[in-house]
Amino acid sequence: MLGPMNEGQRKLIVRLLPRLALAGLFGSALLIVAGMGLYWWQLQRAPEQPIAFPHTVHAGTLAIPCLHCHVYADKSPRAGVPTLDICMVCHQSIATERPEIVKLREHYENQQPVAWNRVHALPDFIYFTHKRHIKAGIDCFACHGAIATMERVGQVRPLKMGWCLDCHRTNGASIDCATCHR
Ligand code: HEC
Ligand code: HEC
Ligand code: HEC
Ligand code: HEC
Ligand code: HEC
Predict the structure, then answer these.
(1) CA 165 to each of CA 6, 135, 176, 180: distance values in angstroms, whole numbers, following the listed order
(2) For a tag site, which of 19, 55, 72, 97 has the least CB within 10 Å?
(3) Into how many domains does the chain fold?
(4) Is the CB of 114 under 6 A from ligand 2?
């Protein structure tokens, strides 16, 4: 059994205490960093796509307007992904030999839409509409980040209720439950 501490043990503990405290601090710091890393990883998640479509080239280098492809963003709840005829206007003649463009042309010729993997998705019970936000002059950037610099699109905003409410409060938009929960 443990008896009362002798002088030597007491001194040892006093000497080690700062190190123990430091180790504890370091441990918590590590945990925090790991937690932040996990959060970051979740936010950055960017699924691989059936055709490696680079926004960097199209929205970046070529500076094609977002609405040229996401044609419903200012007209309806959903922004929509482009139909392949929009792509083929250029890719009938551009980079036709590249493997990704060969895939694209096969889909086009077989009239088989590309099954793009969804990146952003709210739960079904939420009402959201692009139209109102775009009409109010909110940039795609505010909710999707710098898409034109993304080789592969990932989610960089939390899309949580607190995030919606923050911006609604700042801009004097409705924070009535029924606005988003109908
Ligand atoms: C040449 C057509 C084209 C242009 C221009 C374009 N996009 Fe896209 N976008 C696509 C295609 C195709 C996909 C589906 C594949 C993918 O995710 O990369 C997509 C996917 C997305 C997604 C992910 C959708 C999801 O599932 O959540 C967002 C967000 C997006 N685009 C925003 C933008 C923004 C913002 C711009 C302008 C800066 C832009 N796009 C310009 C074609 C385009
Ligand atoms: C305004 C013309 C234009 C439109 C519209 C367009 N692209 Fe492109 N695309 C280009 C150009 C230019 C390049 C770069 C070619 C190069 O690297 O020389 C490119 C590159 C690509 C690449 C990369 C090819 C590679 O492997 O290097 C893919 C994939 C691609 N486009 C798919 C699409 C898809 C899918 C759509 C429709 C959603 C689309 N593009 C619409 C002009 C266009
Ligand atoms: C106020 C925030 C906000 C703005 C501004 C915004 N989006 Fe979105 N976007 C979202 C949310 C939230 C989702 C997920 C919607 C869902 O799951 O119902 C989404 C989904 C998407 C999708 C995939 C699903 C769909 O609706 O087709 C695309 C593509 C897209 N956005 C493109 C754009 C483009 C392009 C712009 C600018 C013209 C834009 N978004 C502006 C918040 C925004
Ligand atoms: C970057 C700022 C911003 C973010 C983020 C944002 N909103 Fe909005 N939202 C607005 C503004 C501003 C309006 C008011 C537009 C207007 O007055 O027409 C609005 C309007 C709306 C409307 C229509 C309101 C009405 O009165 O019918 C809905 C629904 C909505 N937002 C849902 C959402 C949801 C759900 C989210 C989160 C997933 C979200 N918004 C995130 C800025 C934002
Ligand atoms: C501007 C849009 C918006 C408004 C206004 C809003 N919510 Fe939400 N709410 C969301 C979104 C988006 C989610 C889903 C994401 C999440 O869980 O954070 C959500 C999720 C929730 C959930 C969790 C549901 C579940 O099963 O996970 C509850 C509960 C909730 N909201 C209650 C409320 C109440 C009560 C109000 C009014 C005081 C309200 N909300 C107002 C956007 C909104």
Answers:
(1) 60, 19, 10, 10
(2) 97
(3) 2
(4) no
Compute, in angstroms, the gap from residue 69 CA to the centroid of ligand 1.
7
Residue 18 belongs to domain spanning = 10-43
What would the pLDDT profile of 20-47 be if each residue is shown by its tens digit?
A: 677 777 777 777 776 666 555 555 579 9
Say how many Å lie between the CA of residue 168 and the centre of ligand 4: 6
**Looking at residue 39, what is its pLDDT?**
53
Task: In whole angstroms, give the CA distance from residue 120 to residue 155.
Answer: 6
Contact status, residue 39 vs residue 105, Cβ threshold 8 Å: no
131 and 75 belong to one structural domain: yes
Which of the ligands is closest to the CA of residue 135?
4
Instruction: Say if residue 38 is in the same domain as residue 64.
Output: no
The two tokens of residue 175 are 């924070």
Cα–Cα distance, 25 to 31 (Å, whole number): 10
Locate 84 and state its tokens. Answer: 């392949």
Specify the residue for token string 């501490």.
5
Candidates 168, 147, 128, 123; CA nearest to 56 is 147
For residue 25, tell me if it sits in a domain.
yes
